[in-house]
Amino acid sequence: MRSLRPWALRRKELLDDPAADGAAVLSSLADVAISNRLLGGSRAALAALDRFLRAVPAGRTAVLLDVGAGIGDIPAAAARRARARGLTLRLLGVERHHAAARALAERAIAGIIAEAGALPFRDGAVDFALCSQLLHHFGGAAAEGVVRELDRVARSGVVIADLRRSLLAAAGFFLASWPLRFNAVTRRDGVTSVLRGYRAAELTNLCRAAGVEARVRRHAGFRLTASWRPGGWR
Predict the structure, then answer these.
(1) Does residue 142 lie within any of the structural domains?
(2) Which residues contact 80 (CB under 8 A, 6 or more apart)?
(3) pLDDT tops 60 at residue 193
(4) Residue 11: which CATH number?
(5) 204-to-15, 68, 200 alpha-carbon distances in Å
(6) Residue 11's pLDDT band (cuts 50, 70, 90)
(7) Residue 117 sits in which domain range?
(8) Is the dihedral of CA 7, 12, 18, 23 positive or negative?
(9) Of the candidates 24, 32, 91, 183, which lies 20 to 30 Å from 190 by C-alpha distance?
């Protein structure tokens, strides 16, 4: 399995291409949102984010930045949870695709075109930074750079949610994609994404190499989260 990740990183996915056709990008991201809801992506990301949000007093407003926000399904769900606790989340989403940024605006999320490794924000500009199912698109030093940028821009908490690499998970996604009516590109790219994913120790070591001590947890649906407070977990 270890040898499959370098091979998978060499395969290009639709969402790796910033010049990809906008309609195709939105179709793929819509499938990703369904996968998040039904196959564990949303639950994992929100569970890790909840630990930080519970510490924010009711009546406050906090800024949540989602890097690689897609069509905004996860930050929108986080905002709904926050409202139920009397907390307001102001949502920002970073995307590299203009079509996705426009889709974010339809959910009242400020869409910003930027690269994850060079976020256009000052240090500590947001309260919380989320990066869901994006990190596996990067290898080596580039992935470490994304982790450092998330740590740099967040004041109170960072959550990375990603896929746990497994042949069983890849096969399961492929089989589930048919009754879910995912398009052929999503089916292919989804399998590639799973094979680009991490083992828990790998994600821990990646964060450590980037200079942060993260709490890495496994979640149902072959998901992993890494979470920390800027300056070290406490």
Answers:
(1) yes
(2) none
(3) yes
(4) 3.40.50.150
(5) 25, 21, 6
(6) confident
(7) 4-228
(8) negative
(9) 91
